[in-house]
Amino acid sequence: MKQFKAKIISNKKIAPGHYILSFKAPKTAKNTKPGQFFNIRVSQTYEPFLRRPFSAHKIARNKIEILYKVVGKATEILSMKKKGDILDVLGPLGNGFDLETGVSSVFLVAGGHGVAPLYALAEQIIRGKSRALIFIGGKTKKHIVSDKELKELGAKVYISTEDGSKGYKGLITDLVIRHCKAASRLAMTTIYACGPKPMLKEVAKLARRYKMPCRVSLEEYMACGIGTCLGCAVKTRTGFKLVCKDGPVFDSREIIWT
Amino acid sequence: MDLKIKIGKLKLENPVILASGTAGFGKEMKDFIDINKLGAIVTKTITLNKRKGNPPPRVIETPGGLLNSIGLDNGGLKDFMFEKISFLENLKIPVIVSIAGDTIDEFVELARELSKARCIRAIEINLSCPNIRHKNTKFPLLAQDRRAVEKIISRLRKTTTNTLIAKLSPNVADIKEIAKAAEHAGADAISLINTYPGMLVDINTMKPKLGGVTGGLSGPSVKPLALKCVRDAYNAVNIPVIGMGGIMDARDAVEFFICGASAIQIGTANFVNPGVSLEILEGIKEYLKKKKIKAIKNLIGKLKI
Ligand SMILES: Cc1cc2nc3c(=O)[nH]c(=O)nc-3n(C[C@H](O)[C@H](O)[C@H](O)COP(=O)(O)OP(=O)(O)OC[C@H]3O[C@@H](n4cnc5c(N)ncnc54)[C@H](O)[C@@H]3O)c2cc1C
Ligand SMILES: Cc1cc2nc3c(=O)[nH]c(=O)nc-3n(C[C@H](O)[C@H](O)[C@H](O)COP(=O)(O)O)c2cc1C
Ligand code: FES
To answer: Which DSSP symbol is given to B66?
Structure first.
């Protein structure tokens, strides 16, 4: 059964408004792929009413970590959870990233806390001896997280902020384009991206321009997370698809960006 | 303890049913609950032809509830008969297929084709989806039009020997009148409530929060409304009433039985906790034991006034 009670191992603030929560998942962790997510009930009351989806950030042998940003009720409540508290979790859910074989290097593009699922992917890529270049963009330096950890992992990290408070001043896609121009054999490079829709739309455009395969991880409001409510629909070239079941990872060419 | 219940020709081992649109076609639930322990399952509403559904966002949380505008997104009858049915065929519990048509003829064709499938012995007629428009009535909902309800059900009664359940809307002037019309036309049971129409607005963008502009409200906030409808319908007809609307736990469920429900459906609660229906079933058993009530039948309609 994919519903379980998970004991919280730790819940640490890693930057203003950003937390990493680690929970025990001995049976689940080994079946979890980067890009998959968990639908978590943060309160036994009806406030907030629904579960909230969070991507696997780190997948260890016996535990899962999620990285989240406090943006509203549920994430606020989550940020107050303590070691030993119990979470009601559904998962792993969704398709996850599929690593293509034969790629020599991979571009990972994150907008703010969109870096959450890309860390687990970077870990897998580096373990597989491919090169991972990760691009993290944010409004200000406060919105950039996980960069140090990714460096330690052995990924090449590039940062941009809109106000120039860290890294390159401007949009992250500008940085990615520079590397696209520089890199030869782009056909061997796949892009994986996660972040706000406007950013993903730009990434999809540049992938098309440079003829690079590109996968994006999408977000949509969810009620169930398991494919029963049909609430999390996104428009694709072959009709509506479900972010929770057919995604959250899609081929960028499939999506009709609005 | 006797939990058995009869709805038309259907014999249910217990009165807990998964509601239409909240448990997919069963298969989606299989990693989360042992469906065979429940009384029955109602499928997502199917239509004759594929429907792509409404634009996102399709669901949004409300205080104590959920607003949805799915728009009956489904693959149509063929997709059901060729794809979805295979999982349902292997279930040990009764499968109730929910149907909706744009016209009476579509309802009839759906019922005729479904009657050919051996595993299907009951049809829930969705007369009350707030997210689509119908051609047979001037009213926003079929379930608001007594004549349309009568016409559709009597045609279906001639089409199939399957158990027919009429799913009604709470958004009517007099639920008793509609329930009676369904009974007279030949329905074996009534189920209610479907969602109540509603909307929400984002004050920053001044846009509706749902892609479909308006949607249907469900969950705890509609429970009092649903209980009143169930009681009114129970008092008006002699066929079983299947109650739903905001049932989150066994206590909610017991309220529905007391108001006259012969069985209950669990909807939105499945989203919050996909295992909840079995917990509710256990809770109902505990309640009956505590109250020394030997059969669920003896609880139905026992409201003391
Ligand atoms: C598959 C998936 C994986 C996710 N992974 C992560 C993750 O790893 N880390 C992380 O921090 N967040 C992640 N999210 C987003 C996270 O689920 C939301 O931030 C969370 O639900 C907000 O809950 P809340 O009650 O705190 O905020 P709310 O009070 O519900 O909302 C706060 C604000 O965020 C907006 N919002 C909330 N949810 C969504 C949504 N799904 N789509 C668009 N806007 C939304 C609301 O409109 C509102 O403006 C993921 C979402 C999905 C769908
Ligand atoms: C997301 C969603 C989809 C639904 N889809 C259908 C449907 O296809 N057909 C139908 O008859 N009712 C549908 N319903 C209504 C439910 O079956 C039920 O009547 C209603 O939600 C009230 O019960 P609840 O408060 O327990 O959810 C849907 C409800 C929700 C929340
Ligand atoms: S969230 Fe319910 S179908 Fe995706």
So the answer is: E
